[in-house]
Design a protein that fits this description.
With 254 residues, the protein is an alpha+beta fold. It has helices at residues 15-28, 57-72, 104-122, 128-142, 183-193, 198-206, 219-233, 236-251, and strands at 3-7, 33-34, 37-41, 44-48, 89-91, 94-96, 153-155, 164-167, 170-173, 179-181.
Length: 254
């Protein structure tokens, strides 16, 4: 097997081990393909190399179908870490809080949006007025305005287009921030940063797991997390977009 090695001399404890645990947990679902872990040790991970191929609508449709199967494998709770992993969680280079809840809104607001939005304020990328809008949106989310009866899904957690590789055998996911979350969060991240044949991915997804009415209107809600992460470390423009998404979330709170 041809492989690729990622390593960081300054990697915090558990950094690559968390990635490996997430990959294995997603792979165990038997749904969307994930680049296999060959070896992992402190500061280093060796992964199966995925050869690139032109994106096709057929591969995208199949990926959507398989992603739905991954989500339906479930998780013990919202915020649950990959099974057997007791260490820290990360998204990109940032640590994610380990917060579990039986209700999605409470977990999402406290564990995925507010900590990164606070970091964005500290970095000067989110103004006081924008921060207030984010807080108000998170209050509505935590109060359960967007809760439904969907059980926790087994989500990738960082499913932007760069982590969706089209290969000779179809789509393969890489670099997860896997945890128990809401299925719409993965789909909203695909929409936020763009991915080839997104409409076909959605069609494939809905062929086995129809999305709930109003999912398009909830897209800004599910984009709060990735936007907050980016606002914390990638510039002022993401703070503006985070506030926009927060206002859109408030507009649809019921």
């Amino acid at each position: 097997m041809d492989t690729i090695v990622k390593q960081r001399a300054d990697a915090p404890p558990g950094f690559f081990e968390a990635e490996a645990a997430g990959i294995r947990w997603l792979a165990e679902a038997g749904g969307a393909a994930v680049a296999a872990v060959v070896d992992v040790s402190p500061g280093r991970i060796e992964l199966e190399r995925i050869e690139h191929a032109p994106p096709t609508a057929t591969a995208a449709h199949r990926f959507g179908r398989d992603l739905a199967a991954t989500h339906r494998a479930g998780a013990p709770a919202f915020g649950a870490a990959p099974e057997g992993w007791n260490g820290p969680l990360f998204i990109g280079r940032r640590e994610m809080p380990r917060i579990e809840s039986s209700t999605w809104g409470r977990f999402y607001a406290a564990g995925r949006v507010l900590p990164f939005a606070e970091a964005a304020v500290a970095a000067g990328n989110l103004t006081d007025t924008e921060w207030q809008a984010v807080q108000e949106a998170c209050e509505a989310v935590a109060e359960g305005h967007f809760n439904d009866d969907a059980p926790p899904s087994r989500i990738h957690g960082d499913l932007w287009g760069g982590n969706v590789l089209f290969g000779p055998d179809g789509v393969v996911m890489i670099d997860p921030a896997a945890h128990g979350g809401h299925a719409e969060t993965d789909l909203a991240m695909l929409a936020l940063f763009g991915v080839p044949h997104l409409a076909r991915i959605i069609e494939g997804y809905e062929s086995v797991a129809p999305l709930r009415t109003g999912w398009q209107e909830r897209t800004p809600l599910h984009q709060l997390h990735p936007l907050a992460v980016h606002a914390a470390g990638h510039g002022r423009a993401y703070g503006v977009e985070l506030a926009r998404a927060a206002r859109a979330t408030l507009a649809h709170a019921t």
